[in-house]
């Protein structure tokens, strides 16, 4: 049975300074199995974040349903954790304090909070930095803290919206590898939004390609590459073929955008 089942989902937003509503995404159906890693790609504004937020329970569902483990999503819950691109840490708390904060908010009862937080900090490779404050860390390290905070509460589902978007290409590659290592350790169901095609292929079991106006699924590509994966895989013919397919999809979408602007 699928862990996350999205059926004919539609999300509406109100246009700024107006009562008019429009569909940001419409008629989205997607099944994600327990423990699967799924990435979402698509041009800017096609509704990737909206889809992720709807699974997080942070936007109102206008049409259709989302169920997680058979239970309908009607708001946020401890079974899901979200990591945002520009996720902010509490500046006055240390790394340890920030990871503890996630546990405090969820009223964690699974044992000693500090011990739990420290084990997550070790997992993301920051044990030596537990006493540091956010401003003393690099962007990549701060994003590791965010991931540790999300993982600490032991969610079934990990939702990530361009978590490495603000990082340079090399740090990003390292973080992707780290994320896979953690995910392979205790396979959470993961939904991951990215603009980076290589990142999507490298990480995922499935890549969902979205189109725009309103946001919809164009194709779901199963990534049939062996795990565990290392950077060498980026140069294999299979990987190159997935890259070609995804690029073609996204290029077609961009061409459509220019056409629309000209027609407007
Ligand atoms: N809170 C909101 N109120 C009104 N419109 C919104 C709101 N959030 C997003 N939108 C609109 O909904 C559409 C989808 O936005 P969304 O943020 O989901 O796209 P995205 O694919 O994540 O884009 P990006 O790649 O730039 O992050 C866009 O047209 C956007 O302007
Ligand atoms: Mg977005």
From TrEMBL:
<keyword id="KW-0813">Transport</keyword>
<feature type="domain" description="ABC transporter">
    <location>
        <begin position="6"/>
        <end position="237"/>
    </location>
</feature>
<dbReference type="InterPro" id="IPR017871">
    <property type="entry name" value="ABC_transporter-like_CS"/>
</dbReference>
<dbReference type="Pfam" id="PF00005">
    <property type="entry name" value="ABC_tran"/>
</dbReference>
<dbReference type="InterPro" id="IPR050166">
    <property type="entry name" value="ABC_transporter_ATP-bind"/>
</dbReference>
<dbReference type="InterPro" id="IPR003439">
    <property type="entry name" value="ABC_transporter-like_ATP-bd"/>
</dbReference>
<keyword id="KW-0547">Nucleotide-binding</keyword>
<keyword id="KW-0067">ATP-binding</keyword>
<comment type="similarity">
    <text>Belongs to the ABC transporter superfamily.</text>
</comment>
<dbReference type="InterPro" id="IPR027417">
    <property type="entry name" value="P-loop_NTPase"/>
</dbReference>
<protein>
    <submittedName>
        <fullName>ABC transporter ATP-binding protein</fullName>
    </submittedName>
</protein>
<dbReference type="GO" id="GO:0016887">
    <property type="term" value="F:ATP hydrolysis activity"/>
</dbReference>
<dbReference type="InterPro" id="IPR003593">
    <property type="entry name" value="AAA+_ATPase"/>
</dbReference>
<dbReference type="GO" id="GO:0005524">
    <property type="term" value="F:ATP binding"/>
</dbReference>
